From TrEMBL:
Keyword tags: DNA-binding, Transcription, Transcription regulation
Protein's name according to its UniProt entry: AraC-like DNA-binding protein
Gene Ontology terms, MF aspect: DNA-binding transcription factor activity; sequence-specific DNA binding
Residue ranges constituting the HTH araC/xylS-type domain according to the UniProt record: 226-323
Disordered: region residues: 1-22
Superkingdom assignment: Bacteria
Protein source organism: Pseudonocardia sediminis
C-alpha cells in the first residue's frame, strides 16, 4: 500500500540488511525503541524476508517506521517514554484500559510510559509510523502546553487518537513531513537547537490533539502577548519553540495560541515565520551577494527549501527571483 502523499514511503531507498531470524529483528527494534518480548503468533511462520526499521532522532522525540513482515504479539513496559503508533497499512491490536484497541489508517494507538502493555496482534501487513516521547520531556511540556501536569492527569491521554480531527490531522501532517527525512537518520544531529524546535512542535501538536480543552482558557488582553511579540521581533532567528513563548508570556501554550488567534488571526509560530520572511526579503533586496541558503539560515529557517516554500506562499514568487 502506498504511503500518504506527505511523506516518503518506508519501502523507498535501500532496506537495512535482512535479519537472519525474528530474534535479530527484535533486538534491532529494541535498540531503537524499547526492550520487549516478541513472539510470532504462528510458530511455523518463516523468517521474514522483508521488514522496515528507520528512525530519526530529535533528542527527546524519536520518529520512525517499523514493520515486522510477520504476524507477532509484543509485550512491553514502555520504560521512560510514551509511544504513539500510526498504522500506514494493516492492523494493530492491543489491550487498552477499557478493552481491545484496534488501529488502522486514520487512527493511532497511544501507549503510556512505564505501563505493562500487550500488543496482541501486529499483523504482517502492518507498518507503523511511530513517535516516541521521552516521558520527562512530555510531562514537562504538558505543564506549558496545557497548564497542567500530565504525570498527575495521565488519564487525559486516550488509548487511541482519531487522526481525522482538525488538530490531529495537522499533527499527523507534521509527523509525515519529518518522516520524509528518515533516509538520513543523522539529520539535524549537529543542530541541537533545530532538534529541540522540531521536538517541541511535535510535542505541542500531540498534546493539543490528544488532550481535550477543559474550558478554563479565555482570550487575554493584547498586553499579555506584547512581550512575546517584542521578543520575536528582537530575535527572530532564534530557534523558538511555542513552549518557550508560552513561558515568556506566563500563559499555557493553548491559551497563548488562543490569544494570538483572537487578536492577530494566526498562531505564534505563524507570526514568527512572517517576521522572518520580512527580514529575509529585505536581505534578498539589499544583499545581492548573499545566497538564498545563507539568508535562510540567517533568519532561522531549517532549510533553504522550506524557506523557499514559505516565501513563495507569502509573496507568490521564488526567493531566487530577486528584484
Amino acid at each position: 500500500m502506498a504511503a500518504p502523499p506527505d511523506e516518503t514511503s518506508p519501502d523507498s531507498g535501500e532496506e537495512p540488511e535482512a535479519p537472519r531470524d525474528v530474534d535479530e529483528l527484535s533486538r534491532a527494534v529494541a535498540d531503537a525503541y524499547f526492550p520487549h518480548n516478541l513472539v510470532p503468533r504462528d510458530a511455523r511462520t518463516p523468517v521474514p524476508t522483508h521488514h522496515t526499521l528507520r528512525t530519526l532522532d530529535l533528542g527527546p522525540v524519536l520518529i520512525g517506521y517499523v514493520g515486522w513482515g510477520v504476524d507477532v504479539q509484543i509485550e512491553c513496559d514502555y520504560p521512560g517514554a510514551y509511544e504513539v503508533n500510526i498504522p500506514l497499512s494493516g492492523r494493530l491490536e492491543s489491550r487498552g484500559r477499557h478493552g481491545t484497541v484496534t488501529s488502522e489508517q486514520g487512527r493511532a494507538t497511544v501507549f503510556r510510559a512505564d505501563t505493562p502493555t500487550l500488543i496482541s496482534h501486529w499483523d504482517a501487513e502492518c507498518t507503523v509510523l511511530g513517535v516516541k516521547f521521552d516521558s520527562a520531556w512530555l510531562d514537562r511540556e504538558a505543564e506549558h502546553v496545557l497548564d497542567r501536569d500530565l504525570a498527575r492527569v495521565s488519564g487525559l491521554l486516550p488509548d487511541q487518537l482519531n487522526l481525522t480531527t482538525v488538530a490531529a490531522r495537522e499533527w499527523r501532517r507534521l509527523v509525515g513531513s519529518l518522516a520524509s527525512d528518515l533516509s538520513e537518520p543523522g539529520l539535524f544531529s549537529s543542530l541541537p537547537s533545530v532538534q529541540e524546535q522540531l521536538a517541541g512542535a511535535l510535542t505541542t501538536g500531540f498534546l493539543l490533539a490528544s488532550c481535550p480543552d477543559d474550558g478554563r482558557s479565555t482570550p487575554a488582553q493584547p498586553k499579555s502577548i506584547s512581550k512575546v511579540i517584542d521578543a520575536l521581533h528582537d530575535d527572530p532567528a532564534r530557534a523558538w519553540t511555542v513552549a518557550q513563548l508560552a513561558m515568556l508570556s506566563g500563559m499555557s501554550v493553548r491559551r497563548l495560541q488562543e490569544t494570538f488567534r483572537h487578536w492577530l488571526g494566526c498562531s505564534p509560530m505563524d507570526y514568527l515565520v512572517q517576521v522572518r520572511l520580512q527580514q529575509a526579503q529585505a536581505d534578498l533586496q539589499n544583499n545581492p551577494s548573499d545566497t538564498v541558503s545563507d539568508i535562510a539560515a540567517r533568519w532561522g529557517f531549517s532549510s533553504a527549501s522550506r524557506f523557499a516554500a514559505a516565501y513563495r506562499q507569502r509573496y507568490g514568487d521564488a526567493p531566487s527571483n530577486r528584484r
